[in-house]
Design goal:
This protein is 45% helix and 21% strand. With 299 residues, it is α/β, with parallel strands linked by helices. The chain has 3 domains: 4-85, Arc Repressor Mutant, subunit A (Orthogonal Bundle), CATH 1.10.10; 92-160 and 271-297, Periplasmic binding protein-like II (D-Maltodextrin-Binding Protein, domain 2, 3-Layer(aba) Sandwich); 170-267, D-Maltodextrin-Binding Protein, domain 2 (3-Layer(aba) Sandwich). Helix 1 crosses helix 2, helix 1 crosses helix 4 (60-85) and helix 6 (105-116) crosses helix 12. The two termini are 49 Å apart.
């Protein structure tokens, strides 16, 4: 069985390509390190390094194994962070939502839950759906509110339980100082003529918006992409550019005017799902937040 120490030794040598330097960095003798590397090669059944005198190089198998070992160490580091944080003793709820989906429902769900169960601590994280679902899979989150498309992906479709919940409608938003603020509605041509700020490329809605304008034969003047709804909103309010925001977010920030679009069907906000790990519903805290979501926000 491959041990954590063997992984650490191998990764050090694969980085330095120098047994002497790695042995010094690891505070062990070079013969000890050489033996450890040979034992790992025997365990894997293939050479992991080419040896040419004092020089060594990774074989194709070594390169592939390095990538897998790096994943293992990232997971190990995340596990250690969880242990060090003391969250293993935390009986509260860690709730994540993506801003495009949950800017309206997320805060309301938090408010309803804390009013009904003030003794249960709930921590909120905002981010891209793909990142939140990875954290849910890793056990760092308990419940995630994000788009329904992830439930069809090969990576996640059989991993989580889900149920449908109301999402947020997108509106094109501009600064109150922008000439378009007085319009009753805007056209796609209006949007393309104005600088625009979008969510980052990890947000599926960004791809949908870009593809919709390509279908219309229009090119967006993108000045910035950000994963933070606050940054996007402040830049819109400062008239750096327009942008698509959930209606609730557009109304919440002073100096921003949400406008109706004559192409809204092309950029309709994604359907929303609540995700949680299979088997995790046995925790009473999880059952409580799912019950409130189902009673008040189900689609």
């Amino acid at each position: 069985m491959i041990t954590l120490k063997q992984i650490q030794y191998f990764l050090s040598v694969s980085e330095t390509l120098n047994l002497t330097k790695s042995a010094r960095d690891l505070y062990i003798s070079q013969p000890t390190l050489s033996v450890a590397v040979k034992e790992l090669e025997q365990e894997c059944g293939v050479p992991l390094f080419h040896r040419n005198g004092p020089k060594i190089y990774l074989t194709d198998a070594g390169i592939a194994l390095r990538e897998e070992f790096l994943k293992v160490m990232r997971q190990y580091d995340r596990m250690q962070e969880v242990i060090d944080s003391g969250s293993l003793d935390d009986k509260g709820i860690h709730f994540g939502y993506s801003p495009v989906i949950g800017s309206e429902i997320g805060p309301k769900l938090y408010s309803r839950f804390t009013r009904k169960y003030p003794s249960i601590k709930i921590q909120i994280r905002e981010g891209a759906g793909s990142d939140l679902l990875q954290d849910l899979y890793d056990g760092q989150l308990d419940v995630v509110l994000t788009g329904h498309r992830y439930s069809f992906s090969e990576k996640w479709k059989d991993v989580f339980n889900t149920f449908s919940i109301r999402g947020s409608n997108l509106h094109y938003c501009v600064s109150a100082d922008n000439p378009m603020a007085d319009k009753e509605y805007v056209t796609a041509e209006d949007v393309a003529a104005n600088p625009i700020i979008l969510f980052g490329d990890t947000f599926p809605i960004t791809k949908r918006i870009e593809e919709a304008f390509q279908q219309l034969g229009l090119t967006l003047n993108i000045v910035l992409k950000s994963s933070q709804i606050y940054i996007i909103s402040r830049l819109i309010a400062d008239d750096i550019g327009g942008g698509f925001l959930p209606l609730e977010a557009g109304r919440r920030y002073p100096g921003i005017v949400p406008l109706k679009c004559d192409f809204s069907e092309l950029i309709a906000g994604p359907k929303a799902l609540l995700y949680w790990a299979k088997g995790n519903v046995t925790r009473p805290e999880i059952r409580k937040i799912l019950q409130i979501a189902g009673e008040e926000f189900s689609d």
